[in-house]
Amino acid sequence: MKRVAIIVDKNLEIGAAANVTALLMGQLVINNPSLYSDQPVVDTGNVQHAGIKYSTLILKGGKNQIINFSKSLLSDKSSVECVVFSKTGQTLNNEFEVYKEKISNSSIEETEPVGVIVAGEDEEIRRLTKKFSLLK
Known about the structure:
Blueprint: E1 3-9, H1 14-31, E2 41-42, E3 48-49, E4 55-61, H2 63-75, E5 81-86, H3 87-91, H4 96-104, H5 108-111, E6 113-120, H6 122-129, E7 133-134
Parallel strand pairs: 1-4
Antiparallel strand pairs: 1-6, 2-3, 4-7, 5-6
């Protein structure tokens, strides 16, 4: 894995978009612990810095773009890893069991994804995400 891209719903407020990116990155790191260095990266003043190994960018797209993009990765049998976070998750504060149950019994359209993270080889991630704009 050499590149990570996070695509968030273009209609999210910036704080909500930041929250979605943090949640998605957290799940990706659990799935791929090698994304970060297992040794601290410390400067000369003994301040620890993030030890991320690969380029990460945050993009924006429409709700339907996120749904179609996520589904296309499954149908293509792509080697790219993909994880989504949805409006369903946003509405269930500290109710993981309810969240898990709702997700397990819903389609991706019903859960209303507000973000997706993809990770894989640099060239493939660039190709797959070129239709999305940089989040500003």
